[in-house]
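Shape is hard to put into words, and the shape of a protein is harder than most. The fold becomes a row of whole numbers, each drawn from a learned catalogue of backbone shapes. The outcome of that step, for a single protein, is printed below.
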Amino acid sequence: MAISIKRFFVALCFAQNDNYLDINKKMKLSVLILSFLIAFSFSSKGVNLSANVSSVDITPPLSMKYTLGGYGERMNKPAEAIHDPIWAKALTLKKGDRKYIMITLDILGLPQNVKSDLVKRVSGSGWNMENILLLPSHSHGSLEMAALNSKNILNNPNLGIFQPELLDFLLNKLETLVRAADKNYQQVKIGTASQLLEGLNRNRRKDPDVDKELTVTRIDLENGKPLAVLVNWTAHPTFLGGTDMQVSAEWPGYLQSELQRLIVNGVTAMYFNGAEGDQSTILNSPKKGYEKIEIYGKIIAGKAFTLYQTIKPGKVKTFDYAYRTITLPEHTAHPSFMKTGGEEYGLSEKTVKMVMDVLAPKEAGLGAVRIGDLLISGVPGEMTATLGLNIKKTICNHGIKHAVIGGLASEWISYILSSEQYTNGEGYESSVSFYGPGLGELISKEVIRTALPLVHSK
């Protein structure tokens, strides 16, 4: 329906002199002007947001003899059985010629090479480092990160040994997922709601800050049919311990499957963690680990479903994303590293620097995406709640209604603590922070710097 600006102004000139126009011509001119205004409106505001979803089972066959991540005591022993499958799920969003994909994974975390390897495979379809966000759940019943790290030449069973065939398996699955989600887009309505939940998570370092906010985003087709639901809740999936050797998505897996059961109609439930570096679950139950993950997952699903039902999705006026790469500080081992992480991973003082050079990157990518009232800021590691809450508060103070952290986003660099937590704190989180006391402040500043331009996006 678009018309040229020249034709519009010519029409306006004629309209100044009624002698040139009879009634019919005036009516035609009115239609012409209205057409211009409609065309101008579409060109300035863009088309409606459209979306699609896809899911793929990423559980490798046991014949690959892969290990599970999160505990050095597993000593690279292969998984013994599959308790419940692990999945990767994609939500693609498209507005005009811009598109974005969020991929949630029931996995411990990702080394830096996974995203770059995936981009190489799908770049011909318009995907790049800027418009892909990978969000692992941090399940400790899932794949070992080091087994997916193509830079891992350490051959250390405590850390995990690189398995090229496992990396290729995962990349094949993710490529299939991206290509399936990048088609059949349909216009959608979206809404987000948040609430505080008491008594379901805690700070395991005994610091005062706990992120108790549950955030749910509802994505429906225009006809009201549910398409997807995003759930952000901050806590470690660590009911399973180092002696548990069955593959599992942990409690986030049960959260997603139960939420899909409650909503029905073919909805895809996607979970992503927050600034969970010092956040653990609370569940008063005498049950064992595998029973606990089901109980806790279903509790969070019930809370999410109740919140989901309050959301009234609408047209999304704002959709935008941002990405930047930052240089990280020099690697440095925390003074207490040998007492905690070093002991768990069987390292000596001589081998610590080599491990950091291989496993801890020198730069990191920071991505953020805004979907209406929701702004997700990706953090490439395990950030403590103190820092995460400050980022969320800062972004909300600039005008965003729902600001959340996407923890472990696209790559794992280390734990991310405030300078005070790093210097004065003891324990595992401090020792497995590989960039010195200034890392937390640097990441926080750069995450906010990446996200804030999206606040004013149109």
Summary: The longest helix spans residues 23-45.
